[in-house]
Amino acid sequence: MSAIGRRINLGLVVFVVLSMVGTGGTTVLYQDSASELRSQNQELRQENAELRGNLDDTRSELESTQTRVDELQEQLETRSEDVDQVATNLNQTESQLNATESQLAETRQSLRQSEGRVDELEGTVDDLRDERDTLEDEVDDLETTIGDLEADNEELEDERNELEEQVSDLQDDIDSLESRIDTLESEINELENQNEALRDDIETICNRMETPDPTCEDY
């Protein structure tokens, strides 16, 4: 609007001046006015170019701003969805909290019962400790008895070793006797074989005799 106003004012001034100076000065004045108009026109073109540049920058900024607005709108929608999700999670958490409180009450009841059970078990532990002490005394007595028995066992071991030596000696005697018996049995078998052969010879002789000898009656 300021550039258009300057153009109108400048034309009006030129018209008034031309009317005042006449034809002679019109040419000079026209040349000056044309030069000034060209200068102003150049300035206006430059200003217009600057305004167009500013307009382009403004449009770019507007587009960037619109893009940012769209992004913010999407983020707002996302935040709204997040808020809804948080509200849902909060409701679930409240339900879980109620369930947890119920479980806590049950746990406290169980704890009281467990404490009563602990008291009973502690009494049982005391009884078992007394029984353990009694058993330890019995173990001590048994260990003493075992010590005595081990001493007796050592004496019996010595006696057993002596008896084993005697048994070994007797076994040697038995082995010698068995060897002697084997020898005698061999001799007896040989003598029996010889006697059997002699009986056969006597029987043969008796059978050959016309008048048997009285000795042959036994064969």
UniProtKB/TrEMBL annotation:
- Coiled-coil features, chain-numbered ranges: 30-208
- Record's keyword annotation contains Flavoprotein: no
Q: Where are the transmembrane segments?
A: 12-30
Q: Which UniProt keywords apply?
A: Coiled coil, Membrane, Transmembrane, Transmembrane helix
Indicate yes or no for the key word Transmembrane helix.
yes
Q: Which domain of life is it from?
A: Archaea
This protein is called what? Chromosome partition protein
**Organism name:** Haloarcula amylolytica JCM 13557
